[in-house]
Write a structure and sequence with these properties.
With 652 residues, this protein is α+β, with helices and mostly antiparallel strands. The chain has 15 helices and 35 strands. Strands 8-7-11-3-2-18-22-20 form an 8-stranded mixed β-sheet.
């Protein structure tokens, strides 16, 4: 039953009266008397209302951490694959061990067949989406005219064929008997496909160079939140994959050098004695060591242990969510180390600025490890090539760039993805802001450190704020919570805006000490696991001690605007006080920083926590100071994305 308008008005007046009584009993600082005016509007919706989240449970508890009943599926791969450069074909056979840790019996399994992204029946091909432009970079999520997909030669288990149906970039396998909770199954899949010159900005080839990602059938995630996550691959949304162990053997012509996820198990067979000795030296030195020098690159007689036939490269990796590799006969190869981690850069001679890439790589790994969480893998390797910028466990793809600043940004950004989402495995297709945004946030300070003392270094950290006006357009800006495929300005909503959100939370709302403890706690709690937005929201509240529902609602769930304003400033009263009235004119609420200039030439700066807006969008502050005020400025450092700065200043 809905209340009448008259009863709503009555309860509104009663609430206002009770609020005033409570305020009279509240604590006031000795230097000032604080008073706030309630809305008086019965339909006013508080920005501090509780965020509507799924109820916590034994799997994901109220503190935002994995609960006592947390479970996660396990997928282990043994892959044997051969790359044939003569016809650009990759063919392979994989054995997939799938362990059902869920409490559910599974009558079928879903796999990703992203090799079908260039197939005529795929969603990405049918849509023919235009490229995404991120500043000067163009991400073409198409196959640039190439048509082709994966050929499944067999899908079996225990020697028996499995019924399976292919839907573009996904495949459903129907089991003869449901896979019971606690049981496991081993799938055997044989396949082949032609490598596209450019495949949805993720994999491709350039002459003799191959950058291989999304190159084998992979199990989709089955989780406690959505069941099977079997969304088709379109391009803008990247991955959501299970963790497991990989044992991969790659067969290529002997002149090829291979870099990959995981640790090389047979260096004596595929590397020369000089290369092995140089790699050992690189592990003891901070200065770069040339594993393959400029004069050696491209000459198999100097770089390869065999001059004919093929070589098998054997790699293993534990607890990773994907496997990628790159191969070329023309690589230069630099290496160094930090804290026992081998850091490598492989690139073609003449690639602009790539002789510095090894230094940029080392600084990135060192900075992220010391500031946030230790790097979890044995090596960090970056590859120069045609892919604009992509990340996989231990391995990144980065193009050559004319500007050092641009190269560093992409090198650091792709290595930052080793933390988000390689380590903290969020669902990138649904929540790109938890992946790209968190990564962009940690990248900004890394770039500022590397270029410290330069104009770029002094300005890059607050670049998201500088580009706010041109991207956060009223009535056009979309909420960050939307899926990647629904975003019209992914550069803003997935990368830059969430970075700004975290910057302001760290520096203006919580303070670095509170924020850093909570953010590090989030990484630690969800390392090698699958967090959701609710887990992040709850953990940040639990670890910081501040209810942040208002913050996530305005930044993530909606496209709220901010407009703080000075309403009025009175003259000094006979009691020696001045009344200052402030307003919050939009839905977003933030703390207030206020600079007061006095007639005697002095000034003071006051800060008010966001709770100042608890009673509504007006806030009255009685300043106990007999000096006349001549100027008052809100947000004097201009750290906020305030829609209307003309009302931030009052002059007598």
């Amino acid at each position: 039953m809905l209340p009448s308008t008259r009863s709503l008005q009555f309860f509104g007046k009663l609430l206002a009266a009770l609020t005033t009584s409570i305020l009279l009993l509240s604590f006031s600082p000795p230097s000032a008397v604080l008073a706030q005016s309630a809305m008086g509007d019965p339909f006013y919706e508080s920005p501090f209302r509780t965020l509507d989240l799924n109820a916590p449970n034994s799997v994901r508890n109220a503190s935002g951490r994995p609960g006592s009943g947390f479970w996660q599926q396990e997928v282990d791969y043994v892959i044997r694959a051969t790359l044939n450069p003569a016809n650009h074909e990759l063919m392979g056979r994989e054995s997939i061990r799938y362990v059902n840790h869920s409490p559910d019996d599974l009558p079928y399994l879903w796999l990703h067949l992203e090799q079908n992204a260039c197939e005529p029946n795929s969603v990405s091909h049918a849509l023919k989406q235009p490229p995404l432009v991120f500043l000067g970079a163009v991400f073409d999520f198409s196959c640039q005219g190439f048509l082709g997909g994966i050929t499944l030669e067999s899908v079996t288990s225990g020697g028996q064929n499995l019924s399976h149906s292919v839907y573009g970039t996904t495949m459903r396998i129907d089991l003869d008997e449901p896979l019971s909770s606690g049981d496991e199954i081993t799938l055997e899949v044989a396949w082949r496909f032609t490598i596209p010159p450019y495949g949805l900005a993720r994999m491709g080839r350039d002459g003799t160079l191959y950058e291989m990602a999304q190159w084998f059938p992979r199990l989709a995630v089955y989780d406690d939140v959505r069941g099977w996550n079997s969304e088709p691959y379109i391009g803008a949304g990247e991955y959501y994959l299970e963790y497991g162990d990989y044992d991969v053997t790659l067969t290529l012509p002997s002149e090829y050098i291979v870099a990959a996820t995981g640790d090389l198990q047979n260096p004596d067979e595929v590397l020369t004695s000089d290369q092995r000795l140089r790699l050992q030296r690189a592990m003891t030195e901070s200065d770069p060591v040339a594993i393959i020098t400029q004069s050696e690159a491209g000459d198999p007689s100097k770089t390869r242990p065999s001059s004919s036939g093929t070589l098998d490269w054997h790699f293993t990796a534990e607890t990773v969510r994907d496997f990628a590799f790159a191969a070329s006969p023309d690589f230069r190869w630099d290496a160094t180390s930090w804290e026992g981690i081998r850091i490598e850069a492989l690139y073609r001679d003449g690639a602009a600025n790539w002789e510095e890439a090894i230094l940029m790589s080392r600084q990135s790994i060192k900075y992220f490890s010391e500031q946030w969480y230790p790097y979890p893998y044995s090596h960090a390797t970056t590859i120069e090539g045609p892919i604009e910028g992509m990340e996989y466990p231990m391995l990144t793809f980065v193009p050559a760039m004319e500007a050092r600043e641009d190269l560093h940004w992409v090198v650091a950004h792709e290595f930052g993805h080793e933390w988000f989402p390689m380590l903290v495995g969020s669902n990138e297709r649904f929540y790109p802001w938890m992946d790209e945004g968190f990564n962009t946030f940690i990248d900004l300070e890394a770039a500022a450190e590397y270029f410290e003392g330069t104009d770029y270094g002094n300005s890059i950290e607050w670049n998201p704020l500088a580009i706010y006006a041109e991207n956060a357009i009223a009535q056009e800006e979309q909420p960050m919570i939307l899926r990647a495929a629904e975003q019209s300005n992914l550069f803003w909503t997935a990368y830059q805006k969430p970075a700004l959100m975290l910057q302001l939370l760290r520096h203006e709302v919580l303070g670095p000490e509170r924020f850093d403890v909570a953010f590090r706690g989030y990484i630690e709690a969800w390392a090698n696991k699958h967090p959701t937005p609710a887990d992040f929201f709850r953990l940040m509240k639990d670890a910081s001690g501040m209810d942040l529902d208002f913050y996530w609602r305005q930044w993530v769930m909606t496209a709220s605007r901010l407009d703080q304003a000075v309403v009025s400033v009175s003259g000094v009263s006979s009691e020696g006080t001045s009344e200052i009235v402030l307003a919050n004119n939009e839905a977003m609420v933030m703390p207030v920083e206020m600079k007061i200039d006095f007639a005697d030439g002095t000034h003071t700066t006051l800060r008010f926590p966001v709770e100042m807006w608890n009673q509504g969008p007006r806030f009255t502050y009685n300043l106990s100071d007999s000096r006349p005020i001549v100027r008052l400025t809100l947000d004097p450092r201009e750290r906020y994305p305030d829609d209307d700065r003309s009302n931030n200043t009052w002059d007598r």
